[in-house]
Amino acid sequence: MLPDGWGLEALENVAEIRTGIAVGRPELREPVEVPYLRVANVQDGRLDLSVIKTIRIERSQIDRYRLRSGDVLMTEGGDFDKLGRGDVWRGQIEQCIHQNHVFCVRPEQSRLHPEFLAALSSSAYGKAYFLGCAKRSTNLASINSSQLRRFPVLLPPLSEQKVIARVLFSWDKSLETTGKLLASSELQHKGLMQQLLFGRRRYRKFIKSTEQMASRYGLFPKDWRFVRMSEIASEAGQRNLSGGIAPVLVCSKYKGFVDSLQYFNKRVFSEDLSAYKVIRRHEFGFPSNHVEEGSIGYQDIADIGLVSPIYTVFSVSDDVVGSYLYRLFKSDRYRQIFAANTNASVDRRGSLRWNEFKNIQIALPPIDEQVKIAAAIDTAHREVENLRAQLSRLNSEKQALMQQIFSGRRRVFFDAAP
After folding, report:
1. 91, 121, 138, 189: which could form a disulfide with 69 (CB 3.0–4.6 Å)?
2. What is the DSSP string of 1-66?
């Protein structure tokens, strides 16, 4: 049931669908080099023009493939969530053409507004159509030009299309602004970690001489201890032989330890928990075959939890601040160290066990400096997480609004003039 005043047309009846140029064409007689758009340039609701490649093409074919302002760009395929994604071309680059894996849809603008079409194709309505007719493999999906031509386009009055596009554009600007704030906050957080965790930036009260600053060549401050993990930590994690019930935890790459039931929204562990390992609050753990990805956690969500038998669990001595060590382990440098030690492991199965892990070396500042460093990084981390949650919430609210608008359950007010 369509809302009053809305129509429904196949895309080919209200737009021209143009295919792009194939890469790797044979020898050309009158070649010219021009910029072209690839699938990587066409994102969901935006264009990424940070890297633009060029291609050689016959001079006589430029007009055939040249993009015009107002063209809607859609991708032929990719990951399921990227199918049919697109945005409107606004003439950002002169003489720009498009690859054959990127469709150019040129709307009849007296009937179909480009921004409205781009929003419709990326909505739940559009994605349901594209996924329904797509050719699928294990992780990828693709559509062809015939399927795109048959896309059933919802057609409100043109003036209403324009207002819908303006409403959604305001949401896109909020998402873009929040995304930029998040990217900036993540960059600052990463920089702060690199400076504080490796002694390149220190609090004034901890510096007594110029020798107590890290060298730019990678040397640590002279008043920091350089120790092996075996000197400050010991393996823990006895088996849950009693079969007691406790939250079963998993270590995620980005969030550290989480409750598996809440994280996966289903049971992913065995009914028999007797072989699982006990991990107490303020102990560390990592899945031995995934630590090189950064999957290492500091258990601070339950007094007692359980982890899979594949986990290595360890506790640290009282002169180490757990939250400081956790942030150190989450740095890019230590992810590389974990990967190198995993590759050199005698296990030879892509695992890092305690016998190898305990030989990894770390630099430890005095304990009061560890406290300050951990607090500063935790504050920066909370800011990143708050912005990430805000961005997710905005995106969910926009998707819900689009669902209401494109189903006609919510109408926008619009001027009578076209």
Report:
1. 91
2. -PPTT-EEEEGGGTEEEE--BPSS----SSEEEEEEE-GGGEETTEE--SS-EEEEEEGGGHHHH-
